[in-house]
Design a protein that fits this description.
- With 311 residues, this protein is of the alpha+beta class.
- It has two domains: 121 residues, Butyryl-CoA Dehydrogenase, subunit A, domain 3, CATH 1.20.140; 155 residues, Nuclear Transport Factor 2, Chain: A (Roll).
- The chain has 14 helices and seven strands.
């Protein structure tokens, strides 16, 4: 077996672990896979002849890659370009015909969707919400030490800080996590995800009846000025109009994605990792969508915290 074949085989042994670390650090399966791929590229370009603990070395590398990705997120939200929200909505509404939602997104995750769903569920939406409120160094210190039992000396090396400072970061993060959402809040997130998943499936399939059943009779869809081609805010009311509009935009919904946005389950359009549109759903205790807010204004988008989820 050649050296390259040996490295490839060893890397595959640790891939699932690296992916788990990256996912907990990043909260996004797409970004986690990117971090793991970057780690592989660094492995192939490094001299590992004197590395005694390859698993530890790889964990350190994927953690550093993930930390850089966390720090760069604030610079990745760019102004939407082109037809970022379906022109059918405004055109149909202005003509007195049905209109509805249709954010689009760059879908697709490398790997088995069922496996990815299990990975996401193992972390839990409630915990992802809390982790997403932490500063990158706090998140890394907590995840590596408390979730993966990495010694503080090694975590400190990743962060470039002293072990004592790293302990303080983990302690602050731990206090936040202990104040995690209540069981009621966790159940609310589960309900949001269930409805958002059903909404996407019905939109993609052009299933008017399923969409209509998910919407409250008085549902209101609002879009900010940046979300419409005409550059002016719009409002659409009623389950019939919103459901028919969603059917019209079904081809675009095929590429939509679920995400946690400021702690709530929403639908996003983020081609090439650049957030362009958020479709924020308000879900009632009876599992009906009562309001849809389409956000495309660059300033509003920059203030949002987003973590992509599998459908």
């Amino acid at each position: 077996m050649s050296d390259s074949d040996f490295l490839a085989a060893e890397f595959e042994l640790h891939r699932d672990h690296l992916r788990s670390v990256a996912y907990r650090l990043l909260g996004s399966l797409t970004e986690a896979d990117d971090a793991v791929q970057d780690t592989w590229l660094r492995l192939t370009g490094a001299d590992t002849s004197e590395v005694e603990n390859l698993a530890g070395w790889l964990t350190t590398v994927v953690a550093r890659v993930s930390l850089n990705m966390l720090r760069s997120r604030r610079h990745r939200h760019e102004q939407p370009v082109g037809d970022s929200w379906p022109s059918e909505a405004e055109a149909a509404a202005s003509a007195g015909a049905p209109a509805g939602p249709g954010v689009t997104g760059q879908g697709g995750y490398g790997g088995d969707p069922e496996e990815e769903a299990v990975l996401a569920d193992s972390v839990g939406l409630a915990l992802l919400v809390v982790l997403d409120t932490l500063a990158p160094p706090e998140r890394l210190a907590f995840v590596l030490h408390d979730m993966f039992a990495m010694p503080f000396a090694e975590v400190a090396a990743v962060l470039g800080r002293s072990p004592e400072a790293t302990r303080q970061l983990a302690s602050r993060a731990r206090r936040r996590v202990r104040g995690a959402p209540s069981p009621d809040r966790a159940a609310d997130l589960g309900r949001q995800r269930e409805v958002a998943t059903a909404f996407l499936a019905a939109s993609r399939g052009g299933d008017f009846a399923a969409l209509f059943a998910l919407l409250d009779a008085e549902v209101t869809l609002t879009g900010d000025a940046a979300s419409t081609p005409a550059g002016r805010p719009m409002t659409i009311r009623g389950a019939d109009l919103v459901a028919r509009g969603a059917v019209m935009a079904g081809d675009r919904a095929v590429h939509s994605q679920l995400a946690l946005v400021d702690g709530d389950v929403s639908i996003v359009y983020a081609p090439a990792g650049q957030l362009q549109v958020v479709l924020a759903l308000t879900v009632s205790p009876g599992r009906r969508v009562t309001a849809i807010d389409v956000i495309a204004d660059p300033e509003r988008l920059r203030r949002l915290r987003v973590a992509v989820l599998p459908d």
